[in-house]
Amino acid sequence: MSVSCEKCNSKAGSRRVLTVHNLNVHRQTLCKYCGLKFNNKYACAQHERSHTGRKPNACQAPGCSKTFAQDLQLQLHSKVHF
Asked: Which SUPFAM superfamilies match (predicted)?
């Protein structure tokens, strides 16, 4: 059984495959600076920080004033204090 996408007429083998198609193709978030496509808003927001220089993740260790654009960067940095 083949089903067609209502938005682009792409063919899919099942409704499940069509759902995945819709999520990956038609619900993407675009970076407002470079147009790069992301499958979720969080990943897009993380990427956009590379354009803006925004670093909202601050180290909470006493005497440390380092800030980071991404959560993972802060987590990796935090290990130097322990």
From this structure: beta-beta-alpha zinc fingers
Whole-angstrom distance, CA of residue 23 vs CA of residue 7:
12
Quick check: 58 and 49 in contact, CB under 8 A? no
The lowest-confidence range among 23-32, 49-58, 65-74 is 23-32
Among the CATH numbers 3.30.160.60, 3.40.50.300, 3.30.1490.100, 3.20.170.30, which is that of 41-82?
3.30.160.60
Per the confidence metrics, is the pTM higher than 0.85? no
